Amino acid sequence: MPYLAAAVVLLGVLCVLNLLLTIGILRRMRAQGDRSGRHPGPLFALGPGSPIGEFAAVTTTGEPVSHDTLTGTVGFFSAACEACHVMLPRFVEHARQAGRENMLAVVGGADAELVETLTPVARVVVADLDGGPVARAFQNTWTPALYLVGDDHRVAAAAATIEELPTLTYDRVAGRG
User: What residue intervals traverse the membrane (predicted)?
Assistant: First the structure.
């Protein structure tokens, strides 16, 4: 009986030590996460007024798209991005109102359904998961991401959702109004 009591006490002490060690590790991980930050900077490298970089790409319908021809809304989507699929109906609705010539969708990864949904309402560029040359021109590293580009090829606004984009008319953005 004394051996059983000693074993239970020893097991209890080990459990308490394990719990304290686990709490200590979690505190240390949280402190390191706060210092290093998961998002070392702002979500968008290019903010309003920033020029977009040079790029050239071809859409799924064979239309060339480049820095010099791009105005309107640019949306970055990813095949594995659940938030992208959630935002898709609002983006399509927005694209129908804005007009296909004012919309560019960049789809990273293989998602035929996403491309098929976007193609009637936007020019679509399919890229590797890193977003390809268009993403590099925008220095975009995450999805969904939306940019409003003016006729001066500068970012007029950046947002994570359609609702966060300013409600500008495309004539005004493209300098046609």
Answer: 6-26
Count of alpha carbons within 13 angstroms of residue 173, beta-carbon side: 27
Distance, CA of 115 to CA of 63 (rounded, Å): 15
Give the list of residues 6+ apart from residue 134 with CB closer than 8 angstroms, or none: 55, 57, 65, 74, 76, 104, 106, 125, 127
Instruction: Specify whether the CB–CB gap between 114 and 79 falls below 8 A.
Output: yes
The pLDDT of 167-174, averaged and rounded, is 53
Domain positions in the chain: 1-35, 50-172
pLDDT tens digits for range 148-161: 999 898 999 999 88
- Check if the beta carbon of residue 103 is closer than 8 Å to that of residue 121: yes
Q: If you search the block for the tokens 């898709």, which residue do you land on? A: 88
Q: What is the dotted CATH code of the domain comprising 50-172?
A: 3.40.30.10
